[in-house]
Fold this sequence. Notes:
By secondary structure, chain A is α/β, with parallel strands linked by helices. In chain A, about 40% of the residues lie in helices and about 10% in strands. In chain B, helix 1 (about 45-50) packs across helix 3 (about 75-90).
Amino acid sequence: MSYVKRYKPHEFNILNGKRPLLGQIDIELTERCNNNCIHCCVNQPEDDADLIRREMSTDFIKGILNEAAALGCLSVRLTGGEPLLREDFVTLYLFARRLGMKVILFTNARLVTQEIAELLARIPPGHLVEVSVYGMSPDSYDRVAGSSGAFVGFRRGVDFLLQYKVPFIIKGPKIPFQQEEQDELEAWAVSIPSMGKIRSSSMNFDLRHRRDDFAKSLRIAKLRATPEESVAFLARDPSFFKGMAEFCSKFIGPPGDKLFVCGAGHGTCIDAYGKAQLCLPLRDSESVVDLRRVSLKSALQEFFPVMRELRATNPDYLRRCARCFLRGLCDQCPAKSWAEYGTLDTPVEYFCDVAHAKARYLGLLGEKEYGWEVKEWRERVAQLVAAQVAAV
Amino acid sequence: MELTLDFICAPSEDVVARVIEDELIIVPLAAGIGDMDSELYSLNETGKAIWLHLDGKKSLRSIAEEMAEEFDSALSLIETDVLGLVGELEKRKMVVIK
């Protein structure tokens, strides 16, 4: 007889057959970053005194973590901006770990010192550290990061992680002028002990989440992979077709007029200033709750459920997105709609084009067809699955 | 060293224990605790009851006697449970022997 049961990481959210009110919380410790990446939808200047003054205090964040723990939370994602810019990072990290939470750390690794690496080795976060990589050479990295000397700092930080055997993975954007480095990046990823192949590369970038800088959003839009490039890149992976067939058999179909058909609002992301968001990218002021006035529990139990019932009213959305069976292939969501157009229910043309390109590649659509026109989509998905089975 | 009822044990400072949805969850905090750093552990009802008695002051025998009285159970059965649980936890470095 065993008295002790082990839980695998994917089982953390269901304990004793029940789901805690809050399984995971994201906390954006700061929007400031020591990089100024050309594709970034969040970053603010590293030394912005006004932002520093507005950011959550150490005690406030501890209070949120305490409240999250009381709601059953066992996992916190610390992100930014660059979370290691906060002088109280170590304090907050240890506080979360001592609450029994695993910590998912998103960082560019430039501020990973010997002391930080030693801490992460001695008291492991319980999850792979996720390191963003912006190039394989000083020239390309610094060009993307918009910061001279950034590559040297990044390599130094990564070397400390390797030296102290802190498990980490790398991820990064696919920037057009870095094409020639892709193979080198993938080869490096395979050599990292805790890694293997790169699971995904962002290339369909979000515009600025706060709609705060039109020029930056314009620049980001120019860096996006075209729909054809997106498909070509994904199709490089031999498992793409099989994976998509499986995915489509489960997650495809018209969403109807309900706006939130994702997991938004089941968990939450706390922004750097103490606002609880339904998800990490959705910053619309009408969609957030100020935790200085409302408890986390109230946000989760009272405000978010109301938000999740919101219905689209935009006629274009109702004609297209609500009836489109490509939902699972499309990045359309209220957060992306808001970042692009300032409303929650405007079809984002770019994501629509990317989704249709994927669908045509998979044989779900003909050249002149649109996802909202197809009535017999179940048959098409079944054909895709059958084609995959036959190929195997 | 064979575990006996004369030992005094306490939860290790390298783990965190929390009760969530009535389940006692043990989270490894420091490296080398448990089997893998990314896993959580829970105790069954018997294990949970025993864990809550591990205070680093009472011997395992005293704990078994207290629990036998508390649950109106045979002392020998409780002693077996106490040694069984503490043995499992000790192997995983989740308890320390004082």
